[in-house]
Design a protein that fits this description.
single chain; 2 domains; 248 residues; alpha/beta; 29% strand; five-stranded parallel sheet; Rossmann fold
Amino acid sequence: MKAIIIDDEELSRITLKTLLRDYCSNVQLIGEAPNAEVGKQLIDALRPDLVFLDIAMPGQNGLDMLRDLGRVDFKTIFVTAHQEYALQAIRLSAIDYLLKPVDEDELIAAVNKIELETSAVEKQMRMNTLIHNLRGSSPSDMKICISDFEGYHIRKVGDILFCEADNTYTKIHMTNGETLIVSKTLSVYDDLLSHSGFLRVHKSYLINIQHLRSYQKGDGGYVVLDNGSKVDVSKRKKDQLLELLRKM
């Protein structure tokens, strides 16, 4: 893959170049840029397969640069310091990112994963989702990319009712009655959605708090959701749920 690096920090560019040289023989570095403006010029001139893109840069940041480009016909791996809102938007969009300082094992995994991507349609769907998520959307208005056995789906986070563990799979129940089955564990979605108003109330259930209708007491008790679904609450999670309800 032909790649370029866009990052305003020279040390970060040097570090990434060294790691790519030492650990990623499948990546040919063909250029680097210290800001978004030069980066756009390189993209137009060199037509890279892959762009390592910093988010926080003086002037125009990496995310604004992508918005300006509109259609993105290259693969992107974000390389950034921790920025919670931006990272949540990226993660929901199923786009790869690396945190600084870059770890060589995480770099290898990200490069190998992105090399397998072949669908231009899916790539554009993910990028469109990211751009939507960065337009000041509230957590419930953000969109999430979901890949199941039938294809690739874009859904609003706020339209997820609850997620249910099914061995190593997860069933995602939507407010319209749709159920998507994905080959990821519930822990993956707990980590992904816990910043968007979801709560793990049981080892098998992750619920969207905005769709919580009532809580019924019991050993652990259970919650009733907007569509009438009853979801068990574990004794270990009961106090956390009640504390959250007191704050609502």
